[in-house]
Amino acid sequence: MGKECLLEVKNLKTTFMTEKGPVTAVNGVSFEIYSGETLGIVGESGCGKSVTSESILRLLNENTTKYEGELIYKGSNLLSLSEDQMRHIRGNEISMIFQDPMTSLNPVYTIGYQIAESFIIHQRLGKEEAYTQAIEMLKLTGIPSPEKRVNEYPHELSGGMRQRVMIAMALACNPNLLIADEPTTALDVTIQAQILDLIQGLKKELNMGVMLITHDLGVVAEVCTRVVVMYLGQIIEEAEVGSLFSEPLHPYTKGLLKSVPRLDGDRSKNMHVIEGMVPSLNNIPRGCRFAPRCSYSTSLCEEKPPELKEIEDGHKVRCWHYETVLQEGRRKGIADAVR
Ligand SMILES: Nc1ncnc2c1ncn2[C@@H]1O[C@H](COP(=O)(O)OP(=O)(O)O)[C@@H](O)[C@H]1O
Ligand code: SF4
Ligand SMILES: [Mg+2]
């Protein structure tokens, strides 16, 4: 199965019209997602991960939100489709799962009904056949005794089971692209690993592209092929997972990597928090957005915002002093090896 570009996000800009004036939460974001790959989107809370994914599916209130840029899917720009056409995309082409399954599940219907509904609406199956398919989907997501489970209501299931149901619903339309917004954040570690395995397995089986949003680089290391790091509405680094972990080029990424809980030993002890506060979107630094928190910052950084630049094949960074960061990392690597 070849790699095919599923979605091209080109210079996406999402602006909310608030009482205090316009706020641009996503500011010039560009990336591509290929079939069969898992692209990770990481960054601290508030950096624009969810707004990016909600923009792709145009889920935000369009009376108060302005989208700019292009979202090229199968040759057309999603931003210029009608609402009807978008509904078709959401039901058949691009699916999304959320952190809290209860946002997608309706408490008053059985889970079988909710999954079957998707088959009835989008694939025009009869009721009986739709239920059979719903049971198949539940089986696929590893839910035990699915024939029994279809008749249960969301509140009768555990958090992990609900997450599986939401995945079953999202995959019922056989999407080309699955957007998963922190799908395991609310779950405990064992269940988290199971759900990630499930997504990975289904991705392979269905040759989907997956866009996995997380604030946890440990999750990225486990399941992603490529990763995009966001800070304050912009991409600050993009790389293959291997090269991001071995040679991070941005001071912020380096800080995030230090905060990945180590698998050995005391997790709490190893937590590192990047110092300083994220500036508000109403008060963005004139130069580099990370400058107020950056230990490498110089006057150039405070004056002029750096552009995102491709340094080597597939590795991009937005930093004036990435070479210093890289050299230091290499020296440290050698020191560690000698020790
Ligand atoms: N409807 C909205 N109106 C105004 N600001 C919003 C709205 N939704 C999100 N934001 C702001 O956009 C920024 C990005 O939010 P979000 O994408 O949810 O972050 P995260 O990376 O944690 O998913 C935040 O500063 C958030 O407060
Ligand atoms: S441009 Fe300057 S302030 Fe910004 S991340 Fe790089 S070194 Fe730090
Ligand atoms: Mg979010």
Automatic annotation (TrEMBL):
Q: Where in the cell is it found?
A: Cell membrane
Specify the species: Peribacillus butanolivorans
Could you state a single Gene Ontology molecular function term?
ATP hydrolysis activity
UniProt superkingdom: Bacteria
Residue span(s) of domain ABC transporter: 7-257
Q: Which keywords belong to this entry?
A: ATP-binding, Cell membrane, Membrane, Nucleotide-binding, Transport
Q: Does the keyword Membrane apply?
A: yes
The entry's family comment says:
Belongs to the ABC transporter superfamily.
A GO cellular component annotation here is: plasma membrane
The protein's name is ABC transporter ATP-binding protein
Membrane topology type: Peripheral membrane protein
GO BP annotations of the record are:
peptide transport
Q: Which Pfam families match?
A: ABC_tran (PF00005), oligo_HPY (PF08352)
Q: Which InterPro entries match?
A: AAA+_ATPase, ABC_Ni/Peptide_Import, ABC_transporter-like_ATP-bd, ABC_transporter-like_CS, Oligopep_ABC_C, P-loop_NTPase
